[in-house]
Amino acid sequence: MIILINERRIIRIEKEKIKNITIHILEEISKFADEIIEPLTYSGMKRNLYFREGDPKKINNNIYSLERRGYIEVNRKNDSIILTSKGQIKLIENSTNDVIDGKWRMISFDIPEIWDKKRRQLCRSIKRIGFKRVQKSLWACPFIRADEVELIVKELGLEKYVAYLIIEKVDIEKHLRQLFKSELK
C-alpha cells in the first residue's frame, strides 16, 4: 500500500512538471509575441527551453502535443511558431494574476440547447478564469484577467448568445462579496 502511494506521488509530480513545461512553452511564445524584440523562431525557442528545462525529449513531446491540440502552430519550413487563440485561452485559464480594480465582470448568456457542448465548454473555461455562478446563467468575477473572456466566447463562436458587462456599482454587492470572500481577503 505504501508503494502505491509513493508511485502515485511520482506520477503526480511528473504530470505537474509536464504541465509546468507546457505553460512555460506557451508563456515563452506569448512573451515574444508581446515584446517583438526579435522574431521568435521555432529552433530558437526550442534551444532556449532546452537550456532552461534540460530534457529535450520531454520538450519535443510537449511541443508536438501543444501543436496537435491546437495551442500553437509550428511552421518548420519558415522556422516560425505562433500562439493560437486556443493557446492564449489556456494561458488565461492558468493565470494567477488576481488583480482587482473594484469593478465586477459579469457574463450572462442564453445559449440554445443545440449548443449544449459549447455551453459546457464556456462554463468550464470561465470557472477556470475565476468566474462564479450568481444565478443560472449569470456569472461574476472581480479579477481584471476576466476581461479576456471575449477571446473564449469568440473561439467558441457564441458571440450572439453572450453578454459581457463591466460594472462599477451593483445592488448585489454584498452577495458578490460573500461569494468571493476567500479571494477578496
Verbal overview:
The structure is a single chain. Strand 4 and strand 5 form a beta hairpin. The chain has 2 domains: 90 residues, Arc Repressor Mutant, subunit A (Orthogonal Bundle); 83 residues, Alpha-Beta Plaits, CATH 3.30.70. With 185 residues, the protein is of the alpha+beta class. Helix 1 packs across helix 4. The chain has a 4-stranded antiparallel sheet with strand order 4-5-3-6, with helices on one face. The N terminus is likely disordered. The chain is elongated.
Architecture blueprint of SSEs:
Layout: H1 2-35, H2 42-53, H3 56-68, E1 72-75, E2 80-83, H4 85-93, E3 100-109, H5 116-129, E4 132-135, E5 138-143, H6 149-156, E6 162-167, H7 173-179
Antiparallel strand pairs: 1-2, 3-5, 3-6, 4-5
Task: Give a brief outline of the structure.
Helices cover 52% and strands 18% of the residues. The protein has 185 residues and is an alpha+beta fold.
